[in-house]
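Sequence design from tokenized structure. All designs in this work follow the same two-part layout: the structure record, then the generated sequence. An example of the structure record is given first.
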């Protein structure tokens, strides 16, 4: 019997992990101590936050996006991050809670979201996140139904795709991609395999185009404005983790590329 309760439980856990991620990326980026301990503080007045100020999603709404102590505005980044985690975990838990891939898949979703948030926030990839993510993705390939070679080749292609762009443009004032994008490509390839990865890249660049064109047309960005690759690659990866096989087969049928399979 279908039930929504697993998804609700997933959303609850997602909210907690989303709140933790906002703390994690901030402390990693600014080299602050106490990732897993130490009280959260208001970024403006540095007052320690209590339980009422740390309830995911609801605290931000209750205090109307302001600190409970100094009443200064709190960035929408915290609310949106928690909402993205809540929605993602609801969707994935609801679909996969009774499958064999449940735990490794949720782990992959968590790291994908953290890498997305970090790159979107700071325009960089932190290897303290990407290396464990790559390591866990590598271990998982030996327990999957598809041939190990598909995922290994996917990792190689993902890495080389961005390595080629990086080394070709690294001496330019505005390189095409960052060094961390090679790690994101490797991570994505290990998770979805080479066939899905090729389509994933196409979708990721479509996402990027949909964001870049309005920014260019409205003058909010120009050709030299850096955009984080992870902000487009990681959402595409989430999409393929959820329903990659269907997307791949639709793409192959639409363009007549049956030789890929």
């Amino acid at each position: 019997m279908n039930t929504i309760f697993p998804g609700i439980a997933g959303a609850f856990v997602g909210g907690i992990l989303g709140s933790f991620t906002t703390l994690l990326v901030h402390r990693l980026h600014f080299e602050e101590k106490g990732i897993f301990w130490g009280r959260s503080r208001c970024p403006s007045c540095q007052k320690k936050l209590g339980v009422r100020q740390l309830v995911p999603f609801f605290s931000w709404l209750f205090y109307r996006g302001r600190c409970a102590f100094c009443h200064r505005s709190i960035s929408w980044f915290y609310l949106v991050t928690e909402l993205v985690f809540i929605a993602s975990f609801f969707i994935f838990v609801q679909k996969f809670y009774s499958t064999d891939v449940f735990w490794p898949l949720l782990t992959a979703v968590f790291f994908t979201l953290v890498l997305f948030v970090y790159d979107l926030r700071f325009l960089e990839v932190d290897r303290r996140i990407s290396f464990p993510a790559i390591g866990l993705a590598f271990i998982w390939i030996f327990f999957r139904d598809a041939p190990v070679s598909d995922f290994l080749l996917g990792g190689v292609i993902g890495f080389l795709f961005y390595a080629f762009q990086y080394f070709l443009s690294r001496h330019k004032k505005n390189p095409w991609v960052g060094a961390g994008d090679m790690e994101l490509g490797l991570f994505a390839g290990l998770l979805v395999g080479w066939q899905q990865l090729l389509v994933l890249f196409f979708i990721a660049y479509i996402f990027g185009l949909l964001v870049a064109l309005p920014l260019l047309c409205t003058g909010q960005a120009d050709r030299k404005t850096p955009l984080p690759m992870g902000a487009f690659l990681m959402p595409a990866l989430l999409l393929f983790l959820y329903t990659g096989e269907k997307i791949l087969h639709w793409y192959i049928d639409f363009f007549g590329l049956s030789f890929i399979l």
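Residues 1-98 form one domain. We note this feature because it recurs in several other targets discussed in the main text.
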